[in-house]
Write a structure and sequence with these properties.
- The protein has a single domain, classed as Orthogonal Bundle (Ammonium transporter fold).
- Helices cover 68% and strands 1% of the residues.
- It has 16 helices and two strands.
- It has a two-stranded antiparallel ribbon with strand order 1-2.
- A hairpin with a 2-residue loop joins strand 1 and strand 2.
- It starts with 5 loop residues before the first helix and ends in a 7-residue tail after the last helix.
Length: 405
């Protein structure tokens, strides 16, 4: 059995905690963007995922994602040898104990499910949401993780996704789009005031996400090594550049640079660099950030052009940003960093594999998510009643209020 490296193990334990901390950060980011009557319900969506998805991941998610690829379905799902995390205690993955690897990956499953919730915030039943993310994490997320990281067909083809551009961001955005379509628009959409109720909360959430993202991306090296440092540097530079890019376009179009724009731009840059962080150098990371910030700035207008109510811009930031990042990974991947050359180094074939990964992820996640949402709508119902939506989901779904005035 390979020897455990205690430096690497300590590093991944810290990174696992950082990735988990991203989910409360997301709760603050999303929570500040909704109206005050829905602050707790929106926060609950993220916080609840920490409990539900953790248990599901331990029971079946991990084995579907990282079980053996042997067998007739090995290209699509892992074997069921690790149900209930069986066979992980005492084993080693790379240079770290397998339980540490399993929990690190489980933190990704948590935040991916939580990301989806921004699209249908302020109008979905909590019970329907809970059932959806539980089923989605088993049927969509875990197989996708196997395709890309667990020895599945996209990994075999050579598609690159260092920390989750497709598995996390594109997959969650495709599911979010399906949810926004099936659940429908918020009551009064286009007429009522849907301004964020607490932008300082959103900025704090963005800061926590930025902080946690170092565990997300650098930790995906699975060792405390030079590659982790490269990914750390790329992550920070892309987020910084994307913030500047977003604010520049905002200033040009509207004459003002906003705090919401700064927070959104930084998150867009973090999304864009996620698939590329361990494959590109610092200057490429800055370019990826600049491009992602600009494209996502205009990407959030997709909902008005196509008429769906993506309440918190999951599609415009995570879907568009993840797609841009995945494709630019194929352009800027540097052989000197992680052994894989990209388009600029003469490997045009990588662009095809990146495109296949993006299209397959969108098609799979959107189709399955749409079916799940439709089934839930026909059975228990997805949406709260009109009166419940009017008074807010904090009271109608949880019998609480976020603020006492």
């Amino acid at each position: 059995m390979p020897a455990i490296d205690f430096g690497d193990t300590s590093f991944i334990l810290i990174c696992s905690a950082l990735v988990l901390f991203m989910t409360p950060g997301l709760a603050l980011f999303y929570g500040g963007l909704v109206r005050s009557k829905n602050i707790l319900s929106t926060t609950m969506h993220s916080f609840f995922a920490m409990g539900l998805i953790s248990v599901i991941w331990a029971l079946v998610g991990y084995t579907i994602a990282f079980g053996s690829s042997d067998g007739p379905l090995g290209a699509f799902i892992g074997s069921f040898d690790h149900i209930g995390l069986a066979g992980t205690i005492g084993e080693v993955t790379g240079t770290i104990p397998t339980p540490v690897f399993a929990m690190f990956q489980g933190m990704f499953a948590i935040i991916t499910a939580a990301l989806i919730t921004g699209a249908f915030a302020e109008r979905i039943k909590f019970s329907a949401y809970a059932i959806f993310i539980g089923l989605w994490s088993i049927i969509v997320y875990a197989p996708l993780a196997h395709w890309v990281w667990g020895g599945g067909w996209l990994m075999e083809r050579g598609a690159l996704d260092f920390a989750g551009g497709t598995v996390v961001h594109i997959a969650s955005a495709a599911a979010a789009l399906a949810g926004a379509i099936v659940v429908g628009k918020r009551k009064g959409f286009g007429k009522a005031n849907f301004q964020p109720h607490n932008l300082p909360m959103t900025v704090l959430g963005a800061g926590i996400l930025w902080f946690g993202w170092f565990g997300f991306n650098a930790g995906s090296a699975l060792a405390a090594n030079e590659l982790a440092g490269t990914a750390f540097m790329a992550t920070h530079l892309s987020a910084s550049a994307a913030m500047l890019s977003w604010l520049a376009f905002e200033k040009i179009q509207h004459g003002k640079a906003t705090t919401l724009g700064a927070a959104s731009g930084a998150v867009a840059g973090l999304v864009g660099i996620t698939p590329a962080a361990g494959f590109v150098g610092p200057m490429a990371a800055i370019v990826i950030g600049l491009v992602t910030g600009a494209v996502c700035y205009y990407g959030i207008s997709l909902k008005s052009k196509f008429g769906f109510d993506d309440a918190l811009d999951v599609v415009g930031i995570h879907g568009v940003g993840g797609t841009v990042g995945a494709l630019l990974t194929g352009v800027f991947a540097a052989e000197a960093i992680n052994g894989v050359p990209g388009l600029l180094e003469g490997n045009g074939a990588l662009m095809l594999e990146q495109l296949i990964g993006v299209v397959a992820t969108i098609a799979f996640s959107f189709t399955v998510s749409y079916i799940l949402f439709k089934l839930l709508d026909k059975t228990i119902g997805l949406r709260v009643e009109g009166d419940a939506e009017e008074i807010g989901l904090d009271l109608s779904e949880h019998n609480e209020t976020g603020y006492v005035l």
